[in-house]
Design a protein that fits this description.
239 residues, Rossmann fold, 10 strands, binds 2'-deoxycytidine-5'-monophosphate
């Protein structure tokens, strides 16, 4: 019998904690929707870069964001990411976007715009399938402060950098571990210290340290939390 998630699971945390893979895996197991909010900040960043906008000019960034045509899918099996109807799923993970995204995500107008869009997507998915796993930096604190379950994933910086390095290698990008560690540190510092909605754990979030856990164990830990909160409805019994 298929299980179905009821409500919102908010998963926040810095980069390299395994957030995306764990959130997608959890959504798949629970027959739920999935929203990668980081992908949305990355699409705006790609549009900003393509427009040749100065990253030090928040007003210009906000203007580009306001006219960007972006779409993200909520299917955990194939979470498509579109800019002007073209698939940019690979491009938004490249170095250029990764290096610039924190500057774009720090602009309050960009956040306002995306938080609104995220809430609309979440409402739509909840109406359609009843449950969604949402991952980002401010989901439990800002986007869905009344989420049924909030999780804050952490991992030691060395481990996060090693995971990022492995992701780059898997994607065929040659990288140096020390450079990646520096980049991970820099981005987390920028994301945690910005004035608008900085990365932080919600007071009622459950912290899960993934340093010593492989993906399967992280998903198991999340499934246990979901079960403890009684968030799994049995579709067959209900329907
Ligand atoms: O999860 P990610 O690495 O794809 O996120 C890219 C950037 O977007 C990250 O450096 C910070 C920003 N971000 C954010 O500010 N708020 C979110 N909810 C998600 C991502």
């Amino acid at each position: 019998m298929a299980a179905a998630l009821r409500g919102v699971v908010a998963i926040d945390g810095p980069s390299g904690t395994g957030k995306s893979t764990a959130a997608r895996g959890l959504a798949e197991r629970l027959g739920a929707g999935y929203l990668d909010t980081g992908a949305m900040y990355r699409v705006i960043t790609l549009a900003v870069l393509r427009a040749g906008t100065d990253l030090g000019d928040p007003a210009a960034i906000a203007k580009v964001a306001g006219s960007t045509d972006l779409a993200v899918g909520a299917d955990p099996v194939d979470p498509v990411v579109l800019l002007d109807d073209a698939d940019v799923g690979a491009e938004i993970r490249g170095d250029e976007v990764t290096a610039a995204v924190s500057a774009v995500a720090a602009v309050p107008e960009v956040r306002e715009l995306l938080v609104d869009a995220q809430r609309q997507i979440i409402e739509g998915v909840l109406a359609d399938v009843g449950g969604i796993v949402v991952e980002g930096r401010d989901i439990g604190t800002v986007v869905v402060p009344d989420a049924e379950l909030k999780v804050f994933l952490t991992a030691a910086p060395e481990i996060r950098a090693a995971r990022r390095t492995a992701q780059h290698s898997a994607a065929g990008r040659a990288v140096n571990h020390t450079d990646v560690l520096r980049a991970v540190d820099r981005r987390d510092r920028l994301d945690s210290t910005r004035a608008a909605d900085p990365l932080r754990a919600a007071a009622d979030a459950v912290e899960v340290d993934t340093s010593e856990l492989d993906l399967e164990r992280v998903i198991t830990a999340l499934l246990e939390l979901v079960a403890q909160r009684d968030l799994v409805a049995d579709r067959a019994r209900e329907g």
